[in-house]
Structure formats: structure tokens, C-alpha cells
């Protein structure tokens, strides 16, 4: 395991969402329709985070039928599918030895940043559409 992946080991495991703030506004700014937004804001997805060498894989499952997975290159970039099903460039950066920052570029929303940090044993996730300055935050507990 590389130095950076060792620092990320604390993120590994299964995390269930326990609260969210601003998600409806974030999804609306993303162009997601009312029905899908209501489904997304009512469910508590489970994220599975795995570190393997220099790869970070984040998988999610919501309400048993919505699921997906992307693998990121720690300290580098990779092509992934975003939540709008667009192929984008995703850079994965470790900041301050305790934050995972994913920077997605090339989609219809412009630059989107997703920051993950662990505080008080909980995983805090902030999603931001940079050009629109719209932010959603979610908190996950270990599941």
C-alpha cells in the first residue's frame, strides 16, 4: 500500500447516510427532475469505500435499485461516469492528510468538487457545483 493510500485507510468500509442538507437544491441545480429529487432526498444510501494500491473505489446503493461504482486514481485522474451518466475527468487529491477531494471536469455542470472528511467518527461529504456555487452536505455513519 502506498503512502497516500495508507492515510486513506480510515475511510474504508461501509457508510450509511444519516443526514443531508441542501441536497434537493443541489440536484435541482444539476437539472434532476422533481420525482428523482424526491426519491433521492427520501432515501439514505450506503456508500462502500475501498482502497487498493493507488486506487480508490466508491460504490453506492440506494433503495435497493439505484446503484453505481467509480474507481479513482489517488493523486491522479481517471475517466468516470458522473451521476448524470456523463463521462468526465475525475482528479482524486488527498488534502491535509485527512480529506479526499474529487474534482470532476468536462460534464454539463462544469467543475464539481466532492470533499470527504471524517469528523467525530462520521464521514462528512460536501458536494459543490463550482460555477453555480451550490452546495449539498451529507453525513454518514458506519454501517
TrEMBL record:
Tree of life domain: Eukaryota
InterPro entries per UniProt: Calycin
Name of protein: Lipocalin/cytosolic fatty-acid binding domain-containing protein
Organism of provenance: Oikopleura dioica (Tunicate)
Classification of source organism: Eukaryota, Metazoa, Chordata, Tunicata, Appendicularia
